[in-house]
Amino acid sequence: MRVLITSIVVFFLATVTALLIQNDPGYVVLGRGPWRAETTLTFFIILTLFGFAVLYVVTRFIIKTLTLPRRMQAWRRERLAHKGRLALTRGLTLLEEGKWEAAEKSLLKYIAHSEAPLLGYLAAARAAQRQGAPERRDNYLRLALESAPDADIAVGLTQAELQLSHHQIEQALATLRHLRQISPQHSHVLKLLMRVYLEVQDWAQLLELLPLLHKAKVVNDTEAHELETKAYVGQIHAAARAQDSQALHEVWANIPRRLQAQDKILLAYIQQLRLYGEDKESEPLLREALRKQWSEPLVHLYGQVEGADPTKQLAHAEGWLKTHPKNPVLLLTLGRLSLRNRLWGKARGYLESSVGAGGRPEAYKDLAGLLEQMDEKDAAMEYYRKGLQLIVEPAVPLPARSNRNNEKLAAVENFPLLHEFDRRA
């Protein structure tokens, strides 16, 4: 379109010029000293245009000749950059296909000329990781940081993720702590730190990190509550493993009161107290928690602890029958507390009621043990059998027995070699 418009304009100007000089072509006189030249205006214009065209062509030729090396270098750089883009695309594709070695080679082939060397080195690090080459992986990560010093967060996160997947927990923790110094509120850094603290069971650090995780929306309210509960339970178990009752009491004192009545936390604490023979301290805690909120696991545990006054403990538990009269767990607990108080008849009644309400195998076992002591052997064996059926898979039905000849015939038909062996014998 541009050529067409230019041609029309040139043709129009030429036509106008021809019409103007048709009647009066004019003349041009050029002189210098004794010399003098005279020509028509038309010829002078044509000569001037021709000279301008020649000068333009010559000038363009000289400029292109002088800039040829630079243009060749630019063309070569563009060509290599194009190959780099193709190699990066192919390498990323091979990486997704699981062809780690081929992906690594493709990613590195033209990376010196790539427009995005950072992406290439990060992807090559992942490929090396998949091949079990941590040295090459770390080298690629170093080169990635050198190629883009401002991308320290991206490189560090990739390094931490690869270290975690390679079970290099201490190195990953060091990397993440460094990243946290650079960007304290970075959500992905916080998320990976949470993962590491869970892995190494560093519950104190996890609890310290939890408010930041919630603020950065890494975890929601429910997940934050679960993590907090898990951390406190972990601290209780850690203190118990250290066989330090004082540390166990200190952990409990540091747990917020709003969480001390949580089933998982209270159960873990009381179970550890019982290992140190501190049932008398456990009973009031359970009773208070059950006064605030009903919980079958806590009721079940209440029947196992030995309070300071077994009679009062039984009376407290019987008070719960008003709101939970047919609860099999409560009936089992009442049966056990009655046994502790040597109330055999009451214990039998509660245990039979627990079994009748769909009680646990424990109820069958305790009832069978009581009946055995009361010299009711047959009834005891029946309850043992029924309780065992609740926890053991039913036996596989045995095939009908046949006579020995039929069995031998079936074996010979299924295994011809046996027939040959029998014939030789």
Describe how the helices and strands are arranged.
Blueprint: H1 2-21, E1 27-32, E2 35-40, H2 41-66, H3 68-96, H4 100-109, H5 117-130, H6 134-147, H7 152-165, H8 169-182, H9 187-200, H10 203-215, H11 221-241, H12 245-254, H13 257-260, H14 263-275, H15 279-292, H16 296-302, H17 310-319, H18 328-340, H19 344-356, H20 361-373, H21 377-391, H22 404-414, H23 416-424
Antiparallel strand pairs: 1-2
Helix pairs in contact: 3-4, 3-5, 4-5, 5-6, 6-7, 7-8, 7-9, 8-9, 9-10, 10-11, 11-12, 11-14, 14-15, 15-16, 16-18, 17-18, 18-19, 19-20, 20-21, 22-23
Textual characterization of the structure:
With 425 residues, the chain is mainly α. 76% of the residues lie in helices and 3% in strands. The chain has helices spanning 2-21, 41-66, 68-96, 100-109, 117-130, 134-147, 152-165, 169-182, 187-200, 203-215, 221-241, 245-254, 257-260, 263-275, 279-292, 296-302, 310-319, 328-340, 344-356, 361-373, 377-391, 404-414, 416-424, and strands spanning 27-32, 35-40. It has a two-stranded antiparallel sheet with strand order 1-2. A hairpin with a 2-residue loop joins strand 1 (27-32) and strand 2. Helix 4 (100-109) packs antiparallel against helix 5, helix 7 packs parallel to helix 9 and helix 19 (344-356) runs antiparallel to helix 20 (361-373). It is rod-shaped, with a radius of gyration of 46 Å. It starts with a helix and ends with a helix.
